[in-house]
Design a protein that fits this description.
48% helix, 2 domains, 7 helices, 165 residues, 434 Repressor (Amino-terminal Domain)
Length: 165
Amino acid sequence: MILDRVGHRKELPVTEIKILAETPDTVTLRRADYQALVAAAADVADLAAVRDHSTYEDRVGWQAARRNYLSRREAQRLLDGESPVRVWREKRGLSQRALAAAAQISPSYLAEIETGRKPGSKNALLAVATVLEVLLEELVHPPGISPHPGQRASARSHSPRGSSR
């Protein structure tokens, strides 16, 4: 049983899966059956993420939740490797000096974090995240994304994290 897009239960379509071979450790399926199982699992995960996000929006209110939605331009800046600290700082309408003061770090240190010259200590990034009202994870580059503006990361592929933002 899975949930539809609005959280109602619905039956998972069941097709007969033909097992081609079986050992105590493995099961061999037709590729189409395997792909159908993978797609069904992805649908369940996607629907759970939608349900979780809807619950979050209900809890904090749509306007408050919307404050953390990224525009297409902002998302593209992050994908292009721009500093997440800079993107979120600008989204919040703060200058470097104002963010540094509120996070109790030096403006020059914040500039070095934003330009990638320094990675930023965990404590500094936590202070910045608190001021920006985002999770620490939003300020560090995900795997496969370059921490240097304008430079693409390697072609390694990674599973996306399950952010509800």
